[in-house]
């Protein structure tokens, strides 16, 4: 269960980072560019979630195994996100909501 | 645009990537399969059945009983209990040294039926180990030559990776980008995707691969301290890697303590854990000692086995190499860290599949790179209406190697099932079958139009991999449904992976048949090549 949470956290971070790239922002439904404040916020949040998932995995598995897990999962999730963006960008919006929802539910259920 | 550093790096990237590309692809494929070495090994020994016995101590008793009938006069015994990835109950025993006491005695082993304790006779097979060894020791050649070749390939790989990072200008902007059906653009995108996402893996695997073979690539460093004579390497290995010298046998007879009591002592320390093996050395001697090891890993390190005195049953210490026990030299720590990461023995099934995925992406990276090389030159050749012999060679080798190597691996598995079980030299014939298949697939594209060669080879690959589970079901009693029902997940997992591979090959085959390697016929707009934007080449 906690593992799924890490997965979502990592995916959410990658998703936010993809939003800072014009092409993918359009694919995800934002035609207009973000204002610089929003841009910074999205980028910062993206990196925050990536770092947070890394930190949590290191905390759980120890430094070496945690980093291995993190890098390996990032490979997988970035690949999935890329394929989703290329072929099914309409569904990414759904996933985005799902990812956000799971994090919120998790945080509130603690 | 014409940045000289960028240009020279591009050149280096192109040629270091291409020159040994097919060998690197072979190394990536066989090495990646190595992550499932044990599972493949199990698949290749279908005579072994999944046991229903789950009590480790009962299995230990069976192993001991079998050793007492088979190896009463052996110097040492080892009993490997089924644990995690290795589902076999295996016994090993070592004869007393014959005459000349310097030479160690011969080791024997048997795999036992964990329900009855009977030894299982299984077919002579090269197994997963041979396949995995090919990624650094190749085959049909002396080890040292193979090490030189694979080290050079790894060095080229490392250069290609680093130059690749330098010349990839839009590494962040294009991070998540894959644009399908855009001819060469798509190939470059997927090449980037396959290189950038697993970049930590690629760098680690290539660098650690080089470190593994350091005594081949950098013999001078060992030679400065240990000399250049024949024994130099041995002295170096003894000093750094050698395990603690086990106490030699005294030759005085003594009654040994019961192994079960030692196991319970180990379990007092560890709790009720799954054990990996129990061994006893110098049986019946005053210097007998017993080792107990638990299965699993602590982080990325293997837990050290406990060692007990075989006469009194007292704990002597914890096993491990000298360098590990004394103050660890930094070089040793770095070496150990990278090699442990490379082997990934610590990985559980989730991480193991991720390792597998990263390895496949590595193979894909090499393959797409080689395809891109050919695609660029094909465009130029067509524009200028010239025949480029080098291009034809690369195109042929691309089709032959990229599809042929998976086919040859499939043929290796087919040979395991189809060759008569009592054939002599069976194991080496399996390997021969693999390389004959590879030779044929490498030559094949030179006699066919290139797209046809891709389509036909992919169709053959699909047939081979789709046939494998069927052949397995027909020639052995492990048909895929039964394996799943019996919970024999290793057998079923390998079969399902074959099916999946076959389906992917079939899809690729249909796609190339309908649309060619580069999607639709090019329009003028698509003709703006990546090279025009100063990216690669």
Binned, the helix content of chain B reads 55-70%
Q: Approximately how much beta-strand content do the residues of chain B carry?
A: 5-15%
Instruction: Quote the distance from N terminus to C terminus of chain A.
Output: 13 Å
Q: Structural class of chain B, please?
A: alpha+beta
Number of strands of chain A: 0
Of all chain pairs, the largest interface belongs to:
A-B, 27 and 26 residues
State the total count of DSSP E strands of chain B: 8
Straight-line N-to-C gap of chain B: 12 Å
Give the C-alpha Rg of chain A. Answer: 14 Å
Structural class by SSE content of chain A: mainly alpha
Largest sheet of chain B: 8 strands, antiparallel
Helix content of chain A: over 70%
Instruction: Please tally the helical runs of chain B, counting DSSP H or I stretches of 4 or more residues.
Output: 20
How would the global form of chain A be characterised?
globular
Brief sketch in words of this structure:
Chain A has 110 residues and is mainly alpha-helical. Chain A has helices spanning 2-19, 22-27, 36-61, 63-87, 89-109.
Task: Tag the structure with descriptive keywords.
heterodimer, A: 110 residues, mainly alpha, 5 helices, B: 537 residues, alpha+beta, 58% helix, globular, disordered C terminus
Folded structure, characterized:
The complex is a heterodimer of chains A (110) and B (537). With 110 residues, chain A is mostly helical. Chain A contains five helices and no strands. In chain A, helix 3 packs across helix 4. The mean pLDDT of chain A is 85. Chain B contains 20 helices and eight strands. Chain B has helices at residues 4-19, 21-34, 37-43, 56-70, 127-137, 143-167, 184-196, 199-212, 214-217, 219-226, 232-240, 259-270, 322-325, 330-343, 349-384, 389-418, 426-443, 450-475, 480-486, 489-515, and strands spanning 76-80, 89-94, 107-112, 119-120, 275-281, 289-294, 306-309, 315-318. An eight-stranded antiparallel β-sheet of chain B has the order 4-3-2-1-5-6-7-8, with helices on one face. Chain B is α+β, with helices and mostly antiparallel strands and 537 residues long. At the A-B interface, helix 1 and helix 4 of A face helix 15 of B.
């Amino acid at each position: 269960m906690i593992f799924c949470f890490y997965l979502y956290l990592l995916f959410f971070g990658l998703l936010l980072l993809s939003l800072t790239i014009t092409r993918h922002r359009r694919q995800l439904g934002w035609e207009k560019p973000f204002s610089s404040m929003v841009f910074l916020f999205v980028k910062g949040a993206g990196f925050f979630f990536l770092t947070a998932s890394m930190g949590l995995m290191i905390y759980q598995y120890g430094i070496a195994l945690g980093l291995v897990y993190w890098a390996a999962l990032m490979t997988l999730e970035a690949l999935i996100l890329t394929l989703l963006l290329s072929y099914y960008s309409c569904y990414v919006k759904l996933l985005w909501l799902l990812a956000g929802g799971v994090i919120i539910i998790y945080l509130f259920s603690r | 645009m014409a940045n000289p550093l960028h240009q020279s790096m591009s050149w280096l990237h192109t040629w270091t990537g291409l020159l040994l590309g097919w060998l690197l692809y072979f190394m990536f494929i066989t090495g990646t399969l190595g992550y499932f070495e044990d599972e493949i090994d199990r698949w290749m020994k279908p005579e072994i059945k999944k046991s229903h016995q789950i009590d480790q101590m009962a299995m230990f008793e069976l192993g001991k009983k079998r050793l007492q009938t088979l190896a009463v006069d052996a110097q040492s015994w080892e009993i490997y209990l089924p644990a995690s990835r290795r589902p076999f109950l295996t016994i090993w025993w070592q004869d007393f040294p014959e005459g000349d006491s310097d030479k160690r005695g011969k080791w024997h082993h048997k795999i036992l039926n964990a329900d009855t304790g009977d030894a299982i006779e299984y077919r002579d097979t090269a197994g997963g180990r041979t396949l995995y060894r090919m990624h650094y020791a190749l085959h049909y050649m002396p080890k040292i030559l193979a090490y030189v070749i694979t080290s050079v390939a790894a060095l080229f790989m490392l250069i290609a990776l680093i130059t690749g990072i330098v010349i990839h200008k839009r590494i962040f902007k294009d991070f998540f980008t894959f644009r399908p059906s855009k001819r060469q653009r798509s190939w470059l995108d997927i090449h980037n995707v396959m290189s950038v996402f697993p970049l930590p893996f690629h760098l680690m695997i290539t660098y650690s691969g080089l470190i593994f073979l350091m005594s081949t690539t950098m013999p001078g460093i060992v030679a400065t301290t240990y000399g250049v004579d024949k024994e130099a390497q041995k002295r170096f290995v003894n000093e750094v890697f050698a395990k603690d010298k086990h106490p030699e046998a005294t030759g005085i007879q003594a009654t040994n303590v019961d192994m079960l009591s030692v196991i319970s002592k180990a379990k007092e320390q560890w709790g009720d854990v799954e054990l990996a093996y129990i061994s006893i050395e110098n049986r019946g001697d005053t210097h007998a000692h017993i080792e107990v090891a638990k299965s699993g890993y602590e982080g990325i390190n293997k837990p050290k086995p406990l060692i007990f005195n075989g006469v009194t049953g007292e704990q002597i210490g914890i096993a491990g190499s000298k360098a590990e026990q004394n103050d660890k030299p930094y070089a040793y720590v770095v070496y150990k860290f990278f090699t442990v990461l490379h082997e990934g023995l610590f990985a559980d099934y989730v991480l193991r599949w991720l390792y597998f995925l990263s390895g496949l992406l590595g193979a894909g990276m090499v393959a797409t790179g080689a395809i891109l090389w050919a695609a660029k030159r094909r465009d130029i050749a067509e524009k200028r209406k010239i025949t480029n012999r080098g291009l034809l060679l690369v195109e042929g080798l691309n089709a032959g190697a990229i599809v042929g190597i998976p086919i040859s691996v499939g043929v290796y598995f087919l040979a395991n099932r189809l060759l008569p079980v009592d054939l002599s030299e069976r194991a080496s014939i399996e390997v021969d079958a693999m390389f004959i298949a590879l030779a044929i697939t490498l030559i094949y594209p030179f006699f066919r139009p290139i797209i046809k060669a891709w389509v036909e080879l992919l169709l053959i690959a699909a047939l081979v991999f789709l046939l494998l589970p069927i052949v397995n079901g027909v020639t052995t009693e492990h048909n895929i449904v039964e394996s799943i029902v019996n919970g024999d997940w290793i057998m079923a997992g390998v079969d399902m992976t074959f099916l999946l591979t076959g389906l992917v090959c079939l899809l690729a085959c249909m796609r190339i048949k309908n649309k060619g390697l580069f999607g639709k016929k090019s329009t003028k707009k698509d003709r703006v090549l990546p090279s025009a934007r100063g990216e690669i080449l």
